[in-house]
Amino acid sequence: MENSKEMRTWLDDMGLDHPLVIAGPCSAETEEQVLRIAHELKDTDVNYYRAGIWKPRTRPGNFEGVGALGLKWLQKVKAETGLKTATEVANRAHVELALEHDVDLLWVGARSTVSPFIMQELADALEGTDKIVLVKNPVNPDLALWLGGIERLHTAGIKKLGAIHRGFSTYEKTKYRNIPEWQLAIEFQNKFPDLPLISDPSHITGNRDMIFDVSQTALDLNFDGLMIETHFDPDNAWSDAAQQVTPAKLVQIMRDLKIRKETDSEAEYNAKLSNLRAQIDILDNQLIEAMGKRMKVSDGIGELKKQKNVAVLQSNRWNQILGAMILEGESKGLSEEFILKMFKAIHQESINHQEKIVNG
Fold it and tell me: Which of 187, 182, 183, 188 is nearest to 201 (CA)?
């Protein structure tokens, strides 16, 4: 993909004065549900109406989609509202059925992106299509795997390509359903600045109350659009209830989001400054999270010292850490003075944690 500019053409041709918006229910449940949500979205900034037709779940036994019947409901959406339609495909049969029912935008899910075999099957099935095809990042943070899937589609002659950042799975319990790993998305943009990149805050957060904040961060990082799940009765949705918002809430989110346009030199400066500040905010949050984890380890050390009646302060160990960190800091362009101040503060906090436990 040496020249990704041609991939942006489809987005530029839309002539939007706002980020691209793809919205609709996680799953198509009934014809009435699909049409009702579509009618509530038809006069908004939503550009594509999404609905999951095939919904493979992590574990069997849960609702796994209505199947091809839902494609007929999407045809009705287009006929009645004029909204273009979008759905996920995971194999050749899905592709053939989606194209047969004139779905306008297809996306490849995170579980499919992890497999080059699946991506090649989809590329073969989609070869030469003029439909828009978006590829979600794989469930694991592997940039090469993500790009490799897109490259297979590009090699198959698909010109209207883009990517969806939906976060990454982790064994750690965090406030996110799928941790954003924003730095990987930033690296993706740096490698292919002309490849449209869409954020999926619904799957990143797993929590409707966090949708706005993640959406704003994505826009501050110059993402091209958003994919947000919406349902008129989110709490009773058949899948992913916690992360869906009502159409009214979606409209409010779109109104409240700050869109930074590059119309002149000052606006370009502000946009770049906002992007860099957003990156700083992300890294600051990662620092705080890392410090929290470090202090939990210190608590464990405090428990051991209490059991063995060992003094909290171990000077030899402290000097070893400090010397190693000064050298490591220098390799990263950080001054010795800064490293000393930072690690003295960290060390003191660690001592405070351990003393509370030992003296408790």
Answer: 182
